[in-house]
Write a structure and sequence with these properties.
single chain; NADH Oxidase
């Protein structure tokens, strides 16, 4: 197990220009996870946070399929990842697919806000995770057809990302180029680069 002191060194503190909530500052996407497990009760607490996310017409167009490390399901989800994500994702405590339902339940019509609403649920899940010192790394690098086949998804459902969840581990656990990425500073566009005043 990694010592608490070693793990704390790996938490990337962002250099913010304005005062934002500590949970938002704390959330980042590591690749190194410790051997500590996540219980089903802890995971359901994160799902409870996702449950209360805002959504168009309160449709809640999201579904999560998850598997714990060392289970058959974990291996099946890991096998859906692209090669660039496999070396580090194998150490996560949980792998989970976030799925959007593309149509409204009430009338079957296309829901153009489904991916936005799933993103809201994911954000709340990750902030609740940060509150409990659990970290998540969302991945777009996976084979969607494999996931569709594995989960027998209906036509109106689509996997959006696979998430690795776990407690923070030391960057020394990682091989390159992942170790360097783990230790590199966090950066973001300036506010001026993504906002416009009318």
């Amino acid at each position: 197990m990694d010592s608490l002191e070693t793990i704390k060194e790996n938490i990337k503190e962002p250099q913010t220009n304005y005062d934002i909530h500590s949970l938002i500052q704390k959330r980042w996407s590591p690749r190194s996870f410790s051997d500590k497990t996540i219980s089903e009760e802890q995971l359901f607490e994160l799902f409870e946070a996702a449950r209360w996310a805002a959504s168009a017409n309160n449709e809640q167009p999201w579904q999560y399929v998850y598997a714990f490390k060392n289970s058959t399901g974990f291996g099946q989800l890991w096998d859906c990842l692209l090669p660039g994500n496999r070396p580090w994702a194998k150490s996560a405590a949980v792998l989970m697919v976030a799925i959007q339902r593309k149509t409204f339940k009430k009338n079957g019509k296309l829901n153009p806000w489904a991916s936005h609403d799933l993103g809201m649920a994911n954000a709340q899940l990750l902030l609740q995770a940060a509150h409990r010192d659990i970290y998540g790394h969302m991945m777009a690098g996976f084979d969607k057809e494999k996931v569709n086949a594995l989960l027998s998804l209906e036509k109106d459902s689509a996997p959006v990302c696979i998430m690795a969840l776990g407690y923070l581990g030391s960057a020394d656990r990682l091989v390159e180029p992942y170790k360097t990425r783990e230790l590199s500073p966090r950066n973001r566009l300036s506010i001026q680069e993504f906002t416009t005043v009318l």
